[in-house]
Amino acid sequence: MFLGRRFIQWGSKFSDSPMERKLLIVFILLVTLPLTFIGAVSYRNYSDSIEQNTVSYSTNSLTSMMERVDDYIEDMVRISSVPAYQEELKTYLSRSNTYYEQRSQVTNGDESMIGPSDLDLLSIQRGIQGNILFINNIKRGENSVYIFDKFGNGYYSPEAGAIRLDIQDSYKLWKAKVENSSGEALLLSTQKYMTSLKSERYVFTIVRKIYDTALNDIGMIAVDANISVIEDQITKLDKVTHGKSFIIDAGGNVIYNSDKKLLAANISDRQMVKEATDKNGSFYLTEDGEKYLYIYTSSPNTDWKVFISIPAGELTRNSVVIRNVTWIATFLTIGIAMLISIFFSFALTKPLRAMMRLMRRVQEGDFSVQFPVKRRDEIGQLGSQFNHMILRIDHLIQDIYLMQTKKKKAEMHALQSQINPHFMYNTLEAIRMSAELNDDMNTADMLSILGRLLRYSIGDLQEEVTLNKEIGHMRSFIDLLNYRYPDRFELFIDVPEELKHYSTIKLILQPIVENSIYHGMDDNKPKMRIAIAADQLKGFVRIRVSDDGLGMNEETLDRLNGILNGSVQHQPDGQRGGIGLRNVNERIMLHYGSAYGLKVSSIPGNGTVVTFLLPLEEEISYD
């Protein structure tokens, strides 16, 4: 449900997007998705191929290495069987057993026995050492041969070098291993020992009993094979695979490992040993936060297992390079495709954007625009129809403008015919009364003021004047009224200097003031206060004309505002008030637009306020 709503929202946003964005998104999807899919599949197949090839190569290498190790061990086993065919060696071993047996009897106090001669011992040693040299010459290499009689006396060739210092301890271990054997060779795991040259050495050993012709146990042979014979092959393998190798016997004892830290240690409890349940195979294992690929195989002869662990990072190093190259090529291709897509999307939508700009100019009132038709495709046909439409609209607007102009002129003349007779009647009445009451210079002053008023009011009512001139006209008007009603009216002006030069149409204040005086004058008050204030709002000039006269009740106020805003069409029978306000309101609406006009507020007994807004910048509309 949620995904469905989200999909609908995304679809709606996509539908509302600009055309060039839609085309760009479509182009990018058509290029990006296939390239990304191809790159991902290629990288995955290459990685799988690298892993399979590594496992196959490493398995073959391990198998070949174990075959060579088995061959070497088989050679050691054959060397250990040589004493069985050397009658001379067996004779010397028998003599050694006799020598030490007699010596033991003499030592224990048997006086009937004659002690062996030291010359006999020297002869025995030389004879056995000579046979040991012969055995060493059969297969030269890093190995040492030890011959023991049945009393544990050891013989070896000093020429071999690297002889064990703990030879007696080693003999006891070997003796225990072959005690229950019947002459077969036993392979013993890696041991560490200190050589006669004061150096450490690691070897694995082949031990076997030696029997005489009568199958009597006359001694034992031990052949130490240095692990260097394995090390060379392991080093080559590690260099190729960038991994680490180790060999364990059936009991989990380490025969060899690359860093030699686990030599002769038992690791049967390690996870990698537990995982290697088959004869050969591979598996992944994570150790210390790093992933490793383990590959192993077993020797059918010795049951030894050889492992190689390759870090996954090393395994995929080449594939990472291929992946990076693939992604770089993909991104470059996508980038080029995006540039091409941007070019084509903007090229395809450029005529549409040009038409939209022309439409905005038409919306602002400029009907002189023309769309350049260069092609005959759909956009060219649309542009041709657009030009015909603009031409037709321009003609219609010109016709409407002419009709509106004629209508406004007629309305202005009608309004002027309403205002001038009304004003002339009141003014002449004031002059008549003053002439009857005052036979002095007041009449001349009143006539002078009347002349100024007539000169200001007679003329084109569409003419614009400054707000300061309108205020001057109001001062003359109040002065004239004060001749009729001596000192009855006070005029207060509150207009900032910056608004005194504001341009407006003529005679918008006099009808309002006149209406306030003749409909709001309170005979109980010695003076009537008239105030004209102007201030600046955001984008507007607000003008307020207020008085402290009688005011009007709520019913009269609602009716008057209804007449001004057009919701009330006619005055009730017998009522004719507010002609001046209607005239001013209609003139403002005709000149500035229907959004402007008068609004009246009043409180009975506290006076009336007439407020109207004019545009701060001239924005005349013809609604």
TrEMBL record:
Protein origin, superkingdom: Bacteria
Record's keyword annotation contains Transmembrane: yes
CDD domains: HAMP, PDC2_MCP_like
SUPFAM superfamilies: ATPase domain of HSP90 chaperone/DNA topoisomerase II/histidine kinase, HAMP domain-like
EC number(s) on file: 2.7.13.3
Record bears the keyword Repeat: no
Residues that span the membrane, as ranges: 23-43, 327-349
Membrane topology, as annotated: Multi-pass membrane protein
GO molecular function: protein histidine kinase activity
Keyword terms of this UniProt record: ATP-binding, Cell membrane, Kinase, Membrane, Nucleotide-binding, Phosphoprotein, Transferase, Transmembrane, Transmembrane helix, Two-component regulatory system
Localization (cell): Cell membrane
Gene3D superfamilies named among the record's database cross-references: 6.10.340.10, Histidine kinase-like ATPase, C-terminal domain (3.30.565.10), PAS domain (3.30.450.20)
The protein's name: histidine kinase
